[in-house]
Amino acid sequence: MKKLLSLCTLLLALPLASQITPERLAADPSLATDVYHIYEFSPSALTRPPQGYKPVYISHYGRHGERYINRESYFFPGLEVLDRESLTPLGERAKKEISEMVDRTEGNLGYLSPLGGRNHRAIANRLFHRFKRVFRRGRTVRCASTEVPRCIVSMANAGSALSAARPGMNIEYGINEKLRSYLQEPWLRDYLMARRDSLFAAHPDALECIKACFAEPSGLSRKDLTAVADAVFYTWKDLPCLGLKAFDIKDFFSDELFLLFARHGSSWDYCLLSRSPWWNKELLRPVLDDIVCRADEALGRKDIAADLRFGHDSQMIPLYTVLGLTGNGPVLGYDEAPDVWDPATVCPMASNLQIVFYKNKKGSVLVKVLKDECEVSLPTLTPVKGPYYHWQDLAELLNNVEI
């Protein structure tokens, strides 16, 4: 029995991530969509709380839902190359796919897609039905978002679902810039782009597959081929976010090129937002303080049901890192990151953290954490029972972040 319990504890504590390998990509090419991966809910049972504890409050941080692509620069350099060259049937197809995506995103750059709205309504509805006792009539749900429209509309969809589920509950909406405080320096992005260029330089044959789009490819530079590959790749990545079926990326990409793009996506997100040499935990301090302060306030009152926050992967991934949900191994750099995690698993669109607070008649407070609606363990904390922890232990972790 002790061995079985130890095994279960170990499985709960495993990082919510895995490596980028040819085998995993062959089994599931969508892993290469990194943080563009669509939200996929997997039903799971909830562990009963210790005797005498009832849910009283929920603290939530959610990433915006699926969205339209947010930069025209992903498309236009590649289209310019395709427009000026003589194309093969494959090239004409690439041009058509990219052009249609440009038409879809015109006027919608970065905005929430209908799928993103549906997912946030569904997440909020499941939250309500799992914790009906928290969302009682007359209580207040405080919703806050960054000023970015896709986050505001995500918040509105979640709030409307809760309001429909429990008429008479007070839903407050607001903008809070603390929720997007984790922003890295521009030089780091420049460094990571330079690393990608060096990656292609080290694998000069990887872009050869893109030449199949051109009738006379001999005059094309590596920059030209990279621009077309980027446009094809980002079109493929964003189609599922719009609720559309993606074409087969292997029609355009070799296995080698696909692996390079997937590994760069892993390195990019890890180095910017997780346990890399450039990790700066203090950039997340306003978000952590907001979680602790609002929870302590709500626990001292009886009218606050929940605080729902809506932001970006640039806060979501650091928050997961603080909690140990991306692993607690050594600090890694660009080359090593893809060997330990994939962003599609860590932070898909609409990814969410739900901290559920339980209290007994003596006033003792426990919490459990759900990542994407599934219970997780916190590897640096000692549980009271199963996935339940003392709130003061979690608050201390958030107040004294270390890596």
What can you see in these coordinates?
- The chain is an alpha/beta fold and 403 residues long.
- The chain has a single domain (2-399), classed as Phosphoglycerate mutase-like (Rossmann fold, 3-Layer(aba) Sandwich).
- 42% of the residues lie in helices and 12% in strands.
- Strands 1, 2, 3, 4, 5, 6, 7 and 8 form an 8-stranded mixed sheet that branches.
- Helix 3 crosses helix 8 (222-238).
- The protein is elongated, with a radius of gyration of 23 Å.
Key phrases:
403 residues, alpha/beta, Rossmann fold, eight-stranded mixed sheet, 12% strand, elongated, disordered N terminus
Give a short overview.
The protein has 403 residues and is an alpha/beta fold. Helix content is 42%, strand content 12%.
Question: What order do the helices and strands come in, and which of them pair?
Answer:
Layout: H1 2-13, H2 22-27, E1 54-63, H3 76-84, H4 89-105, H5 114-130, E2 140-145, H6 149-165, E3 170-175, H7 186-202, H8 222-238, H9 255-273, H10 285-299, E4 304-311, H11 313-322, H12 343-346, E5 352-359, E6 365-371, E7 374-376, E8 389-390, H13 391-399
Parallel strand pairs: 1-4, 2-3, 2-4
Antiparallel strand pairs: 1-5, 5-6, 6-7, 6-8
Helix pairs in contact: 3-8, 5-6, 7-9
